[in-house]
Amino acid sequence: MNLKKLFRPKSLAIIGGYWADFVFEGNKTIGFNGKVWHINPSRKSSNKKKYYKSIKDLPEVPDCVYLAVSSDLTIKLIKDISDIGVGGTVCLASRFSELNSKKGSEKTKQLIINAGKMPFLGPNCYGFINYLDRVSVWSDQVAGKPTNKGVAIICQSGTIGNTISFNNRSLPIGYILSLGNQAQITIEDTINYVLDDSRVTAIGIYAESFTDAEKLIKVFKKSRVKKIPIAIVKVGRSKIASKTILTHTGALSGKEDIYDSIFNRMGVARCNTLGELCESLKLFHTHGAINNDKIAIMGPSGGDMAMIGDVAEKLSLNFGKITPKLRKNLKKVNHPSVIISNPFDLQTYNWNDPSELEKTFKLMFKTNFGLNALMLDFPNIEDCDTEEWDAIVNKFIKSSKIKKNGVIISSLSDTLPKYLRERCFKSGIAPLQGMSESLIAISNSIKIAKAWRNCFDIKISQKINKLETKTMIFSEYESKLILKKYKIPIPKSLITNKNDILRDYKKIGFPLVAKINSNTIFHKTEIDGVVTNINSEKELKKKTNKFKNKILIEKMITDKVFEIIIGIKNDSQFGPILIIGAGGIYTELFNETTTLLLPLNKKIILEEIKKLKFSKILFGFRGKKGGDVDSLINTILKLANFAEKNSNNISEVDINPLIICEKGKGVFAADALIHYFKN
Fold first, then answer.
1. Are 500 and 440 contained in the same domain?
2. Coil, strand or helix at 560
3. 502 and 360 within one domain
4. pLDDT category, 469, cuts 50, 70, 90?
5. DSSP notation for 266-317
6. Neighbouring residues of 353: CB distance < 8 A, sequence distance ≥ 6
7. Are residues 184 and 127 in the same domain?
């Protein structure tokens, strides 16, 4: 799909009244130098402005059309627009799929049919602003100013796009693209488009839903190859948010654990607020993804440095060590009372002497830190003299030329004046606003670089859609035998009955576990269908006498360190995904899981396990022996391999619990069920 004429038009036709007027005036504001025609059969032309009756009356075919009429008229007119060969259209009208009704769906289908091969944005969207080429096809006032390079903002909500354009953070914006219902042009399509524009430095996304898993992963990979960082606000974690999204665009959100896994794996920064998004984009714009995670932060206040330490610890930021040589040199240029540390409280001894401060700045920039930041809050420029602060900033900017990795941070978002922000950008310094948002931005940049370095691509394994097909379940014993073929360890076991159990148990030995084995009874503990710790024939006979079905007996694992759950779920978009969580009695205590997309390697699995709270037990906690982590990782890899090879056939796999023994003694699937698609 060629989107160039749509997003970089040389000529523009506007159809409609009130909203169309915004677009007409917006192009005057932004300085569009192409041809603009206004179509409105109800308005009379004058000496000042000419109105055309229809698209067919224009002197030539426009590159782009803005269509701001009713939904029914939109469906009718888009065919005429497509038929004459227009490059693309923006559809403002609502009352399509966001209605979540049959009528809305039918109208959307007809809109797509009538558009033919012509690309269109929406419906139910604001349009776009292209600050790079000075084009506005936007259903509101145009805020911001043209630029030669900047970040691309892609939003499913036009109002969110507006909010970002109104920012008072000096964010250099190249594009704002509103998507609406994504009836044709999707979020993945627009990401792909802006990645091909060499003037785009980073991408910010507000997303409610995604349409194509394979395309999404493909464009994220493309961003890594092109070294263009992406930050995203993906809403829908809460029930309230999900309900709001459905009424807004008619799209279902959800799958948030899967999205987290994708973003972490592919090197996409997930933000919680627009403030975090903007600050991350400012840092990406100036410094890209920061490969060296050793950072340094300086400031005149011990209070600020203490707060930074608290926030940074939660983000696992790495403050670089002050080497003996650096410490010695810093002592020479600072007051004896100044304590050399990182974060570095400069105190106020040198604050009135910028030339002395410059010596410290230069020494810090000559080190191997990946980023040097100065915490600095300006006084209100309307009330106070800022000469002293300006002088300090000038020295910092001058010193930053040594390594070009400078950042200025204000602890409050509103204490960094506009003129200073713009000066910083011109000097290659990121002016970050708000302590927490700034440190999150730094953390995001470092995480992206790490993910890019350790790239291990995701593969969508779902080949056919059987997920609405009826499923069947193998019994526990059948499931275990299947998993055993893939080298997943299971306890020594066999199937018997009440008549033969006193003979057959000898093949296993005490202590034993006895269970009902059934294709229809899955929650065996709820009906007393599991008996553990059987140590004699008397116990065996007595405790299994109630079992009417076939009996599964297996060796009881006695030297366990921990129990976890590992499982597979076959997702309609992403194929098989793997889930790890605390099992047994620890499930409610820890109440946490992690989701991983396939394929996997040992490094990815280990990193994800370490993020879980219970991992402390696995690695040995307070002098206790740790578990066999190597065997755990190998078993997870084997389960992932099983899932990939059987993605067409399985619906779910549950190993609950997987018993982890002491180091060197392995792991065992104590219970397992495989759900498969019925042919």
1. no
2. strand
3. no
4. low
5. HT-EE-SSHHHHHHHHHHHHHH-S-S--EEEEEES-HHHHHHHHHHHHHTT-
6. none
7. yes
